[in-house]
């Protein structure tokens, strides 16, 4: 977008310049109650400094390039299908780069970016609790990491 290109150029000269981040409750949740809480929260802001934006983009590139660092670590990806903040297909492609035994990917149909604050969040909490529950056997002699499934 023009804002992204503008921010990259200005980042070298004015790294502390705050710009709109483009994130609002309509991109985060379909739950009107959670959207109202977001709007009323005095700690919520809608700006990001150019430097923070550039650093976040750099960190994302590093993670995408260095996925092998996470091999052997069980990972759970809860990917909102309708995420307007993060590119869901990029997340799924990243997850597919891991060994199947280490990764579980759940596509959350119809959900927006904040799946734990969206409608149907009980199902998302249940998925997380079930995944964490698989690790209850850890620490017992001879136990291994649970094996997830990759879509």
Describe this entry's structure for a reader.
The protein is of the alpha+beta class. It has helices at 2-11, 25-28, 32-40, 50-65, 88-96, 121-133, and strands at residues 18-20, 47-49, 75-80, 103-108. β3, α5 (88-96) and β4 (103-108) form a beta-alpha-beta unit. The mean pLDDT is 84.
Describe the secondary-structure layout.
Blueprint: H1 2-11, E1 18-20, H2 25-28, H3 32-40, E2 47-49, H4 50-65, E3 75-80, H5 88-96, E4 103-108, H6 121-133
Parallel strand pairs: 3-4
Antiparallel strand pairs: 1-2
Helix pairs in contact: 1-4
Rg of Cα set = 18 Å
Count of helical segments?
Answer: 6
Main sheet: strand order:
1-2
On the 0-100 scale, what is the average pLDDT? 84
The structure class reads alpha+beta
Helix-strand string:
HEHHEHEHEH
Low-confidence stretches: none
Q: How much of the sequence is in beta strands?
A: 5-15%
Distance between the termini: 31 Å
> How helix-rich are the residues, as a percent range?
40-55%
Q: How many strands?
A: 4
Main sheet attributes: strand count, strand direction, barrel closure:
2 strands, antiparallel
The gross shape turns out to be globular
